[in-house]
Amino acid sequence: MNRKNRKIFILHEIYGVNDFIQEQAVAFIDEHTEVECVHLYSDEKCFSYAQEKEAYLYFTNEIGFDTPVEKLVKQLRVAIQQYDKVIVIGFSVGATIAWQLSTLPLHRVVCVYGSRIRQYLDLQPSCPTLIVLPSLEKSFNVQDMKNALNHIHFVQTIQFAGEHGFMYCHNVTFHRESAIQAHMSIKNFL
User: Fold this and answer.
1) What's the predicted TM-score (pTM) here?
2) What CATH number does the domain located at 6-189 have?
């Protein structure tokens, strides 16, 4: 029997563990890799893309960043004892949480359009960390954040055409070519 020596934790965006997040999980499973979609919402709530405002308010008012980080630190410390390689991949708010977890002794961290990473630029990852950025964000200058990240040890940034959410095929911001390129870049990084 082959022992699975790699565990990947997928952290969702404000919408919850939806079809997109489940598709991401399937894309990374192989004979040596176990993948787990982490529910940041204790009630496993899931929102549609049309419910963006409701999902955002739920995350900011009911969840926030601190509680999931505390929970995941414990979960990841257990996984680090059980697997040779532990990887965290986060999308949007999940990417910001993944960034906060990058100080743990993980194998790799991938943060896909974690716009709030800009609030935690004082963190120093302890493992190779890939930051996937869109070319445009409505709320801040992506280039400024990219420039700041490029000076942090272990951090690699890569930018693709499109807006926040460009990898979600069910979202209006979907950018097919960038989504394919980003997915290939993530797989190569891992």
Assistant:
1) 0.95
2) 3.40.50.1820
